[in-house]
Design brief:
- The complex is a heterodimer.
- By secondary structure, chain A is an alpha+beta fold.
- Chain A has three domains: about 100 residues, no CATH class; about 140 residues, Butyryl-CoA Dehydrogenase, subunit A, domain 2 (Beta Barrel); about 120 residues.
- Chain A is built from 14 helices and eight strands.
- In chain A, strand 2 and strand 3 form a beta hairpin.
- In chain A, helix 10 runs parallel beside helix 12.
- Chain A is globular.
- Chain B is α+β, with helices and mostly antiparallel strands.
- Chain B has three domains: about 110 residues, Orthogonal Bundle (Butyryl-Coa Dehydrogenase, subunit A, domain 1), CATH 1.10.540.10; about 90 residues, Butyryl-CoA Dehydrogenase, subunit A, domain 2, CATH 2.40.110.10; about 160 residues, Butyryl-CoA Dehydrogenase, subunit A, domain 3 (Up-down Bundle).
- In chain B, a hairpin with a 2-residue loop joins strand 4 and strand 5.
- The longest helix of chain B has about 35 residues.
- The chains are: A alpha+beta, B alpha+beta.
- The interface between A and B is large, with 46 and 40 residues.
Chain lengths: ~425, ~400
């Protein structure tokens, strides 16, 4: 199909069906069943077998028409990608539609108090009893778990296999007695994540994804797509101020989906606020602070240009150079320096918090949020290992975690559990 | 934006890299740096004529290859990678831009073709006591002698390749302000003496001028010295990126070869993390240097720039100079440290780049001075935007 004929077909379909006074789920059910909600998915599973390029045209046609598309936000797309790659026919039939309609929320149950950077060291266990897997253990850093119907669970099913080979990937129903979700308060006062406690929680045999012992491969698929959906829910062509039930529903969905992320801009250091704050406070006239501001500006510009270089190289069809692997580490450095510069600019006021703090609390939120950026989504230290090994080609450190997992030394004492 | 090089530019870089790898190994660097002249005439001719690098950015009518700052920056980067010993920077960058910015058409036709072909070597003499090329630093005077001849008197320091130049382009003050003047190296009243500098791969001289007959460069250009400094900083930044990359590469290679405690030291996280940090620094510095070269290319002939263009050129030039010079020195220090004791020996090559890094750090202004210069260019812009807003509101 040509570009324009795709566009025309989508627009005609929208012409026939779009009604902003429908409720959101009814509309998205139509979208999901039509295949226009996820056109790059297989035709057998709510898609149209389209290339990503053609799918982008569909998305564009929706945006131009001003119509709402399938649900996209949160972990649901990670679930979809993983199920499409590794799930059974029954799993795809059962779960994909609820993902697109937005009826079901999903969460990821990977990290544990005892395994963060070393994700494959998970010790949450699943034991087969009859036709059911019985799950016991604790997960942490689970965004949206308190809203979720389903969880993507990584659990150990074989303690005699080496670390990576003893893990299995499951879909767990979050709405059951054996699953307890608690919000986890952060040092910046927000609670964007949860802890999930599983005590004899039950997973049906049919909800084992991929192969028993093949959980690590499935988890890799999920994580490889994490960056893309890590972002906040995407805006749909000018939804603000639009009339109709659909848009009211959508506002509500966005508010819930975005709630965990309101402090993310502050976590990145808000370099954009440095110059206005320096002008406002007069710090711009202090020679020492000027040097700090200049250093930050240089680092932030260089980081931006380095990202631009990576994008330009990809666009020109060149192999990825080192510039493509450095963004996360650069962002940590920028945030850390930005926090220092904001402190220098604010002086005494850096001691305040809440609405008394400059910019109605924004400055305080920067100062108490930036420590997260060098940890979340892979610590700086892990990033540096990856850069050293994959980009510079340096040898790996010797490891001590091969052989049967039950013999691998694990956390004991305080580091084993967040609640000693 | 030169965020990605064209296939032609990649090929251009490859050809310079191959040439310099062959002609300028460190054995040759060490041989030439120990000589008074500091370069090899045959090689210089090959660079200028066979590879046409000296005039890569000069118009074809003047004997050049007609490319721009991005190509010149590529050449500078490769020169910096190999520590090329020869009067490239002084001619292709400093003198060529001094003539491009300061000389009228006739004067350009008189001098540029000789510089482009490498047959005539020129050097730029601006610095007296401070590091930045500020107007107030220039005490050398240009006064009218008999027969309306202009005579220069004063002292100049840190004149790159001054001792082997045929022509010297000198900044001096007259009643009408600061300007550039051309003198011949054999002119009466001129004394050139070599300076003992830390980096023997970049020769420098000091000048004493006592009523030296000179020709004034007569193109009117109100931003002559600032933009000459911008060009110098941008090309030096690109030269430094080449050196920093070479240092990183040598540290990566050496730490893998070095075994202690039964394992390659590159397998220790203490080493890996340092190298990852260094790679990040080098790539960020590279972005600054490339972006600055592109900004300069976007400014065309550097004349008749809008306020915004002028400020951005200064911002990016000083940003690149500050960022890359600190990274270059850091790369040199890290590379010495990662080599351990052998890194501090004369036999090991690291100190050759260390000395280039150390001197490049202060050449044309220290990092702190350039951060201030950058911020001034930016805040002037901010203040103007604020003023405009207030005006519009009123």
């Amino acid at each position: 199909m040509s570009k324009s004929s795709i566009h025309t077909e989508v627009t005609q379909w929208l012409d026939r069906h779009w009604d902003p006074n429908m409720d959101l789920i009814t509309w998205r059910s139509l979208v999901a069943d039509s295949g226009w909600g996820a056109p790059s998915w297989p035709a057998d599973y709510y898609g149209k077998d389209m290339t990503p390029q053609d799918a982008a045209i569909v998305e564009q046609a929706f945006a131009e028409f001003g119509a709402v598309g399938a649900a996209q936000s949160g972990v649901r797309m990670l679930a979809a990608v993983t199920l499409l790659a590794h799930g059974s026919h029954e799993q795809k039939q059962k779960y994909l539609r609820g993902i697109l309609t937005g009826e079901d929320q999903w969460c990821q149950l990977f990290s544990e108090p005892g395994s963060g950077s070393d994700l494959a060291g998970a010790t949450t266990r699943a034991d087969l009893r009859g036709d059911e897997w019985i799950v016991n253990g604790q997960k942490v850093w689970n965004t949206s778990a308190h809203h979720a119907q389903y969880g993507l669970l990584l659990a150990r099913t074989n303690w005699d296999a080496p670390k990576h080979q003893g893990l299995t990937y499951f879909i767990i129903n979050m709405e059951q007695r054996g699953v307890e979700v608690r919000q986890l308060a952060q040092m910046n006062g927000h609670a964007s994540f949860n802890e999930v406690f599983m005590t004899d929680a039950v997973v049906s045999r049919d909800d084992l994804v991929g192969a028993e012992g093949g959980g690590w491969q499935c988890a890799m698929t999920t994580l490889a797509n994490e960056r893309r959906s890590f972002d906040r829910a995407r805006d749909v062509g000018g939804r603000k101020g639009r009339q109709g039930k659909i848009f009211a529903d959508l506002e509500e969905e966005f508010a819930i989906a975005n709630e965990p992320y309101t402090w993310y801009p502050q976590r990145a250091g808000r370099v954009d606020l440095v110059m206005p704050r320096a002008m406002e406070t007069g710090a711009i006239n202090d020679p020492a602070t000027r040097q700090d501001i200049a250093r930050l500006h240089i680092m932030a510009e260089c980081a931006k240009w380095t990202g631009d270089r990576a994008k330009a190289a990809a666009k020109a069809g060149k192999p990825q150079g080192p510039e493509g692997s450095l963004g996360k580490l650069a962002a940590s450095n920028v945030a850390r320096l930005a926090s220092r510069v904001h402190t220098a600019i604010s002086g005494n006021d850096a001691m305040l918090t809440g609405p008394d703090s400059p910019m109605d609390g924004t400055i305080a939120e920067i100062l108490v949020s930036t420590p997260a950026i060098s940890i979340a989504g892979g610590t700086d230290e892990i990033q540096k290992n990856i850069i050293a090994e994959r980009v510079l080609g340096l040898p790996k450190e010797p490891r001590f975690d091969d052989g049967p997992f039950r013999d691998v030394r694990r956390n004991t004492g305080p580091a084993a559990d967040t609640k000693n | 934006m030169a965020l990605v090089f064209t296939p032609d530019q990649d090929q251009f870089r490859d050809s310079i890299q191959r040439f310099l790898k062959d002609k300028m190994p460190t054995t040759e660097v060490r041989r030439l740096m120990a000589t008074q002249r500091g370069f090899d005439d045959d090689l210089w001719r090959q660079v200028s004529q066979q590879l046409a690098l000296t005039g890569i950015h000069i118009a074809e009518e003047l004997g050049g290859a007609g490319f721009g700052p991005v190509e010149l920056a590529i050449a500078c980067e490769e020169m910096g990678r190999s520590l090329f010993c020869g009067p490239y920077f002084s001619n292709a960058v400093l003198s060529a831009y001094a003539l491009k910015l300061g000389a009228d058409q006739d004067q350009q036709e008189t001098w540029l073709p000789g510089i482009v072909s490498g047959d005539m070597r020129a050097a730029l003499a601006i610095t007296e006591t401070t590091t930045l090329w500020s107007d107030s630093d220039i005490q050398t005077t240009a006064s009218a002698g008999d027969d309306d001849q202009v005579l220069l008197s004063g002292n100049k320091q840190f004149v790159i390749d001054g001792q082997t130049a045929d022509l010297l382009i000198v900044a001096a003050k007259s009643a009408s302000g600061t300007g550039l003047y051309v003198i011949h190296s054999d002119a009466p009243g001129l004394n050139i003496s070599p300076l003992d500098t830390m980096d023997p791969t970049r020769k420098m001289a000091s000048l004493t001028l006592t009523e030296v007959p000179a020709t004034k460069l007569s193109r009117r250009n109100e931003n002559l010295l600032p933009n000459l400094l911008n060009a110098a900083c941008i090309m030096l930044a690109n030269e430094m990126v080449g050196g920093a990359q070479q240092l990183l590469q040598s540290a990566v290679e050496y730490t893998q070869l070095r075994y202690q405690f039964g394992r390659s030291i590159a397998s220790f996280q203490a080493i890996k993390h340092r190298l990852a940090d260094l790679l990040l620094d080098v790539e960020l510095a590279r972005s600054a240097a490339y972006q600055a070269a592109q900004t300069m290319a976007d400014c065309g002939d550097l004349e008749h720039l809008s306020d915004r263009q002028q400020r951005q050129l200064t911002e990016h030039a000083s940003l690149a100079k500050a960022a890359v010079s600190e990274t270059y020195l850091q790369a040199a220090l890290e590379t010495i440290q990662l080599h351990g004791g052998i890194g501090f020996t004369w036999e090991n090559d690291t100190h050759l780049w260390f000395k280039r890094a150390k001197t490049s750090e202060v050449l044309f202004g220290t990092p702190a001075q350039h951060r201030e210069r950058m911020l001034s260019a930016m805040t002037d812009a901010n203040n103007m935007a604020e003023a405009n807003k207030t005006e519009n509101a009123a």
